Amino acid sequence: MKRLGLLVPSSNVVLEPLFKTVKTDVTIHVSRLGVLDVKLDRTSRAQFELESQLSAAKLLCDANVEAIVWGGTSASWLGIEHDINFVEKMRHLTGVPIGSCVLEINRQLGVLGAKRLGIVSPYTTDVADQINNNYECMGFSIVASAHDGGDLSNDFANIPQHVIADMIQTVAAAKPDAIVLMCTNLAGAALAKSLQDEVGCPIIDSAAATLMAFNFL
Predict the structure, then answer these.
(1) What's the whole-number mean pLDDT along residues 64-81?
(2) Domain of 37: which CATH number?
């Protein structure tokens, strides 16, 4: 039985239940990084300081896990370099294979050859705009985005399924190559599966992508 390490935002309640339904041939061991809100101010960004993230992730090595994945989407608004630095430093410190949700999302987009994106998130307008800007800087075209307007992570998991579905339908109208549900505390994995055929393009759910990342480490 393989042991896998999952680093999650402390307020995340979606990833662990999803993991149990998807991966039955492994044991999952969780460490939590203190995250209560998602804003662009200095206090909120400090939650994701690299040293704090590394310290929380290194605790997983005490359980002799065979791989570690960061299950947060912070690099989507902080910049992809954040996750690249985290992965490189953790590999150097521990020798354990390391991955992240956002890096896996980007890997999947590359496999699909998707360039025109629709992005769905629970965040405020300024955070959503920052995500869009970052992806455009990576060479993508954001043809549509929809966001719920929240900043407290506990609230993200409570967004009703019909609201998430409406946001997916909204961005799908722009005919993107792919839609990304950008937040691992957004309960969108089931909708991503059920609506793909209806909207006519792949839907990448962040929580599901986090679990998929273990397959490529």
Answers:
(1) 98
(2) 3.40.50.12500
DSSP letter, residue 37: B
CA dihedral 161, 165, 75, 211 (to 10 degrees): 70
Spatial distance between the Cα atoms of 172 and 167, rounded to a whole number of angstroms: 9
Q: What is the pLDDT of residue 25?
A: 80
When pLDDT is averaged across residues 100-104 and rounded to a whole number, the result is: 98
φ, ψ for residue 121 (rounded to 5)?
-150, 165
**Stretch 193-205: mean pLDDT, rounded?**
97
Number of domains in the chain: 2
The reply to whether 80 and 169 lie within a common domain is no
Domain shared by 110 and 196, yes or no: yes
Q: Is the pLDDT of residue 22 over 80?
A: no
For 192, the domain range is 103-205
* 67 shares its domain with 35: yes
The first and second tokens of residue 24, run together, are 């039955």
Q: Is the pTM of this model over 0.85?
A: yes
- The SS3 of residue 1 is coil
Tell whether the model's pLDDT for residue 24 goes beyond 80: no
State how far the Cα of 204 lies from the Cα of 133, in Å rounded to an integer. Answer: 19
191-195: long-range pairs with CB below 8 Å, 24+: 191/161, 191/164, 191/165, 195/165, 195/168, 195/169
Helix or strand run (H / E) with residue 69: strand 68-70
